[in-house]
Amino acid sequence: MTTTDTATARIRTFHPRRGRMSDRQRDALTRLWPAYGLQIAALDGPCDPTTLFGRRAPLVLEIGSGMGDATAAMAAADRDRHYLAVEVHTPGIANLLELVERHGLDNVRVAEGDALDLVRAMPEGCLDAVHVYFPDPWPKTRHHKRRIIAPAHVALLRSRLAPGGTLHCATDWAEYAESMRETLTADPELVDVHGGYAPRPAHRPVTKFERRALTAGREVFDLIHRRR
Questions:
Q1: Residues in the annotated binding site
Q2: Burial class (CB in 10 A: 0-12, 13-18, 19+), 170
């Protein structure tokens, strides 16, 4: 483990979440997890994306896939790339698995646990893109250290991007957006694609969470940076 990896291993960036599942979700989880699921805590050694998917293709890492609707929509429209979604909310994992089956998405896998632990287990340069959409803003100042878009975490994520790969973040918290922008811009190996906040990309579906933010009057900020 490198110095950067050690630094990122110390602080959890998420709340563990279980929640109630419907019978439909429970059934999907039971049936589909063996074929499409990955338990991050059970990893014993490196995680090889080619082995995980059974074939080689550009890989997109989705950190915090929520209920999975956006991941499923992007994967369905982008069949030439693999999508690895990481989530800790069990009903969300189950819902995404159901969507994978419903739409025949053989280019999706779903991981449960700490996304940073998964990234540490992956080879450098293996990712075509990393998506961090609406992560926990940890709004209290004393909790800012838990934010996933922090210098050490960004360095880790960037190290797993292939040259030319993109790190795309989105948030509806203006203060966190500015913190993200400063952190991403400070990384010498990342290039700001739009020179500031990006126009809303067409490939990022509008989720229920985003609609609620817009209804509440909160602006949504996108940031897209590319590895040199």
A1: 62, 87, 114, 136, 140, 172, 207-210
A2: buried
